[in-house]
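Encode chain A's predicted structure.
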Amino acid sequence: MVSTTSKFVAEMIGTMVLVLMGCGSAVIAGSDGTTGVGLLGISFAFGLSVVAMAYAIGHISGCHINPAISLAMVAAGRMKLGEAIYFIVAQIIGAIAGAGILYVIFTNHPGAEMGPWALGSNGWGTGYLDEYTTLAAFVAEFVFTFIFLLVILGSTSTKNIHGGFAGLAIGLSLVLIHIVGIKITGVSVNPARSIGPAIFARGEALSQLPLFIAAPILGGVFAAFVYNLLIEKKETV
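Encoded structure for chain A:
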């Protein structure tokens, strides 16, 4: 049986890798969609981070690396609330660590400048990418997280005979979501992913953080209820 300490460390490292590699692709490898890896490359960086960690730590903690996933698993009856809170603490610590590593690397570049949404922070409105409204940002984060959790719940179901490919399906769904959503909010669908960079960026990124906590959690929990009530009979822990 896997210890709670092992699960904590796994979730912390997994979330650190997601933030460092995902946000790092935007900050270091090309953040404007026209140079470097571009929007498609950034999308794949986030998705591939999830795929890599799914196979690295999935057998230890399930590789949630996202508070919205942990809370959705509680709503779906697949996880106890106490364990979810334990996971979330690890995820937030990992996200801050990943953003901290990225901060050290980025600020030691001669042309480094910490803008209002630095380090790949999520945001919306005037000055942020395509300047979508608050409503657009909330709807996008809610719906994208809803879709993301449907994929996760379905691919990890005990009734899914293709469960060995769950990590790949989940990672590719995150790629898809980023391809569509980067220009809207930078794509969070993960409160921890938003918290890490915002702490270092401060300013607008920090003030807009509540939306990137609330919308993904609501979207994930709603997906759990829809999946259990309309798609598959509720599973118990």
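The chain has one domain: 4-231.
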